[in-house]
Every structure is written in C-alpha cells, then in structure tokens.
Amino acid sequence: MSIHPSAIVSSDAQIGANVSIGPFTVVHAGARIGADTSIGSHCEIALPSAVGEGAPLLIGDGSLIRSHSIFYEASSFGPGLVTGHRVTVRERTRAGRQLQIGTLSDIQGHCEMGECVRLHSNVHIGQASRVGNFVWIFPYVVLTNDPHPPSSVTRGVTIEDFAAIATMSVVLPGVCIGQGALVGAHSSVTRDVEPGTVVVGAPARRVCLTSEIKLKDGTGRPAYPWRHHFNRGYPEDVVKAWLAEADRLGFEGSAISNKA
Q1: Residue range(s) occupied by CATH 2.160.10.10 in the chain
Q2: Considering the chain, what is the average pLDDT of its residues?
Q3: Nearest in space to 1 (alpha carbons), one of 28, 29, 34, 24
Q4: What is the rounded distance in angstroms from the CA atom of residue 165 to the CA atom of residue 225?
Q5: Would you say 62 and 44 are in contact if contact means Cβ atoms under 8 Å apart?
Q6: For the residues 153-175, what does the mean pLDDT come to?
Q7: Half-sphere CA count of 28, side-chain side, radius 13 A
Q8: pTM value?
Q9: 179 Cβ contact list (under 8 Å, min separation 6)
Q10: The domain 2-211: what is its CATH number?
C-alpha cells in the first residue's frame, strides 16, 4: 500500500492490497477500496451525506480514479472502474465492471449502469437513469429527468444495451433508447427510440436502421452492430463471444480486432 503523507485516510476505511492514494486526497470511513486500485491527488472518497445515510462506497479491484474526483458514499462499482479528472458521482449509483467516466462528467446518483459503460467527457447523467451494458455516451450528452422543471417529479431515462448517443445530444425525461440504437449528434430526443434505429435532429426523428450504415473504411462492411468490428479495451471473454456471434451471422472481417 502507498499512501502519500499529505493524504487523510480514515482508520475505519477498508483498503485492499496494493492500493495507492495520492497527495491531499481524503478517504472517509465509508470507503471500501478494492485491491490494486490507484487514486490520484485531491480526491474525496466516500464523502458523507444525508442521502447516503452512512452506507459504504464500494470500489472494485483494479480501479483508477484520477485527480480531483469526488465519490459520495452509498454507491458501488465493479472491478476496473476508470475515471478522468474532476469527476463527481453522487449517492446510490450502482455500476458493473469496467465503467469509464470521462473528465468533468457527473453522475447525479440513484442510477443503475451495466457492464462496460463508456461515458466520455462532460457527460451529465440525471438521477434515476438506467443504462444497460456496453453503452456509449459521447461528450456533452445530457440525460434529463424532470418533465416540467422545476418540480419534484423524477422520470429517469433508460438506455438499453449497445446503444450509442453522439455528442451534444439531450435525452428528455422518461425516454427509452432501444437496444443497439444510435442517436445522432446535436439531437433532442423527446420520445422512445426503437431498437436498431438511427434518430437525428431536434426533435429527433427516425432516419434509417443502423444496419443500413456502412463503415467508412473502404470495406463496405456494416457499421452496426458495432461490436462485430470494434472491441478495443473490452474483457477477453466478452470479445470472444462477440466475434463468435459475428462469425455465426456471417459478418465478413469480424475476426479482426481493433488495435490500440
């Protein structure tokens, strides 16, 4: 274990083997930090709050939390959590393995996220959001939750497995983005999006099926499902299953993995 002399770590925090904690970071009593985790400088981990009610913050093994990030108590994250800088995550967030949270993104709590969710920088996840597995959310996307702001009514957004939301899009309260759907850049999504479809615009309207889009690499291969040609950074067991699926369905060139 490596704890910088300027860090403040509660004696009641539970710290796994081979954890490093950077300068001026504060780790509160509710922290449960898994082995082989690295926490950068000026972070605050398991910050107490009235909403958290003293419940622990669980950080899975092999995580990387970069500088100036704040995690409130009462959340749990699977192994391999990775953040950018200046990330904020509020209470009652639940996420599976290998969640990535980009720089300056915030998760407002009371959210659920599946495995291998990718949030780019400056993403806002409103309370009561439900995000499935292998979802991509690109920079400056906002998931809202108040149908007539300001009010005490909360209707979270649902994003199903393998969906992708392109940069600067806004998803309105209660909307469901279907499995494998694509939301184009600068869209305002006001109603549910059917699985496997592309929507674009403000308000967003259906333009085609994702299966109609071809990769712009000269091969003419289908761009979607994206998992049949893109697998960089995903767990080995997941990649093997994707490639087997692609081969079974006859997607040419599917066995070629992306290089870093």
Answers
A1: 2-211
A2: 95
A3: 34
A4: 14
A5: no
A6: 98
A7: 19
A8: 0.94
A9: 132, 160, 161, 162, 163, 195, 196
A10: 2.160.10.10
